[in-house]
Amino acid sequence: MATIKKPLKPKPLTKLRSPILTLILCISAIALLCLLSSLISTNGFSFSSPKNLPNKPRRQHTTHEKYLYWGSRIDCPGKHCESCEGLGHQESSLRCALEEAMFLNRTFVMPSRMCINPIHNKKGILHQSDKLNPEERWAESSCVMDTLYDMDLISETVPVILDKLKRLNSHYSNLLLINRTASPLSWFMECKDRNNRSAIMLPYLFLPTMASQRLRDAADKVIALLGDYDSIHVRRGDKIKTRKDRFGVYRTLHPHLDRDTRPEFIHHKIEKWVPPGRTLFIASNEKTPGFFSPLAVRYKLAYSSNYSRILDPVIENNYQLFMIERLILMGAKTFIKTFKEDDTDLSLTDDPKKNTKSWQLPVYTMDEVE
User: Can you cite an annotated GO cellular component (predicted)?
Assistant: First the structure.
């Protein structure tokens, strides 16, 4: 009698496919977590993203990113905001911090406000009262960062977010932060080798061109009205100060600057670069009314004050005014600086811009001028 073999019992599909199903479920779970992470708001940082260009997705910041954070109120070190420097020093320090974020491939946490030293501001925000508490005084002696810079524009080079926290709480304890401590003299930490230009990741002109959209629009309107023009930046004021030595003799850190930035010398210096009859836009911290008027015999002079109809509704402080003037200066056919910063720069003086700490006798004669 033939033996009838029983058919083999098929293995359950669940057992055969369990590795595949597990893999699919894991991938789906990871994708879902990533989606949820991108939608979760950290509620402490104001996120900025690249401009809404066609077909360009908006950048989403998440708590899983790595950040470079310098602490709250980094831009007002010490007990009093009067210790902060001018915009040039602050930008140099800020540029160094941005370079560190680039090097470490981290998102930079930008302070939400910038300190403005009273000696660098004459308008609007610095009418302080003794009755103000520290927080109110801080608000009165600073300006909102994104009224100066375009966070979206900066993020196209270095991802940045605005810090709007008064303090970090437990919600942020798991953020991948590098938390720095500021120097009371230099805001962020200064770059170690600023003289080696090959080691600099961001050029000097990076932050000046990152002005907020409102400031750029105002500058564009003035540039359009100026038409074909040349420009000079004449820094006097703080740079031409003198002091007496122990013998009662006046000395200065920039011995030729006062002479080099007077109208008669400016006329002599720029005639080889700017033909007569040209429109010449002048930006300066000189406070004497009509100081540059002698140049009008050769050039059509223009100042930012000529365009108050455009600028007054936009400007709340001198930082904003200077940032607009900077854009106008750079938009000229020929731009002449006060100090030479690069070998290719045109400048009014050959004195070094950096503080040499060498107090010298001022020079006013024209004998050594070419």
Answer: Golgi apparatus
Instruction: Name the residue type at position 35.
Output: L
Structure letter (DSSP) for residue 292: T
For residues 278 and 117, give the distance between their C-alpha atoms in angstroms, rounded to a whole number.
Answer: 36
Question: 172 near 110, Cβ under 8 Å?
Answer: no
Bridge partners of 179, per DSSP, are: 69
- Residue linked to tokens 């005639």: 271
Tell me the domain boundaries of the chain: 62-208, 213-347
Task: Give the three-state DSSP class for 47.
Answer: strand
Q: Measure Cα distances from 268 to 45, 182, 263, 332 in Å.
A: 53, 45, 9, 20
For residue 251, the cross-strand partners are: 243
pTM score, whole prediction: 0.75
The per-residue pLDDT for range 220-255, each reduced to its tens digit, is 999 999 999 999 999 998 788 888 888 888 888 889
CATH, domain range 213-347: 3.40.50
Helix (H, G, I), strand (E, B), or coil: what is residue 265? helix
Token readout for 268 is 């002599």
- 258-304 pLDDT, tens digit per residue, is 999 999 999 999 999 999 999 999 999 898 999 999 999 999 999 99
Sequence-ordered strand ranges (E) for the chain: 45-47, 66-69, 107-111, 113-115, 142-144, 160-163, 176-179, 229-234, 243-244, 250-251, 279-284, 300-302, 335-337, 346-347
